[in-house]
Amino acid sequence: MQPLNFDAQLNLLLQSVLKESELSTSLCDQLIQHLLTVDGACQAFGVTGTAEATVIERSHLLRQIYPQFQTFWKTRSSQPEPLETLWQLWLPLALQLVAAQTSLDRPLIQGILGGQGTGKTTLAATLKLILNQLGKQVCCLSLDDLYKTYAERQQLQHLDPRLRWRGPPGTHDVDLGLQVLQRLRQGYLMEPIEIPRFDKSVWNGAGDRTAPELVSSIDILLFEGWFVGVRPIDPVVFDTAPDPIESESDRQFARDCNARLHDYVPLWNQLDRLMVLHPTDYRLSQQWRREAEQQMVASGRSGMSNEEITQFVEYFWRSLHPQLFIEPLVQGAIVDLVVEINPDHTVGRIWGETRCK
Known about the structure:
It is a single chain. By secondary structure, the chain is of the alpha/beta class. It has twelve helices and eight strands. The longest helix has 24 residues, at 51-74. The chain is globular.
């Protein structure tokens, strides 16, 4: 039997899985072969000598959640359901989180690091759907939810005009996030907890904090953001930093953002696990942002021009350059899972190893 090398073949297999009430031996063998030769995530998801059991468990879960997933996906995209991504990433990751949380005596806190267009919000929403079907109460928290209030950011911008956009280190209420995560790590909730929420639409798009969400039960918290888990680096690297960090004022801004990262380390220390959605080229974020803005304009909404997009994206590259902060991180010991994101937003290589604290 030839190895399955194409997503189209896997898609056909998964369609067969959905139609069969029992997994045939032939189909099971093909899925095992694909799992062991193409997936590339055996170590990341703990698949060793249990490939058959893994395929059967994953197949059962696929059939269980597919009706809800199909409805969910129709509300998010006009594209066909990404069955390959569901099979290769979302299902095994959900099962892994269940196993990790079961071994704890408290809620599990999963960090998700991903830049513009990497799909971190879609990942969190999909995981919540699957985990709910597995009996787990899931709460999603974005780093954006921890922004300082509009008034606080206005004052911050007055003190430091370089912080003209929300997002860089220093624009978040780290203490607020720390209070939430520390309370979760203390054990299961005896009374409801307030989860911060942020409304980006108010104040002409400047955004402001809104009423918190009251949550009474959490098994797994999915904490996502564009620099969740990112730690300070040696300031000397900014002396020879890559574009667009060009001028001395650019380098000073980068150094200052790097220094502010120290305030976030206690927050990152609350994470049980950290995964990174890692583009094959960090510059894809600019392309993806341009595509997103074009879709907004096509739907009748206002969007940024190409020049404005370039200024916007490069602003964040100057604050925390992916080449300096993300590349070393994905090779380090604190990341449990790395998911490579291709230019067309599909999933590429997956690697990592479970290291639950």
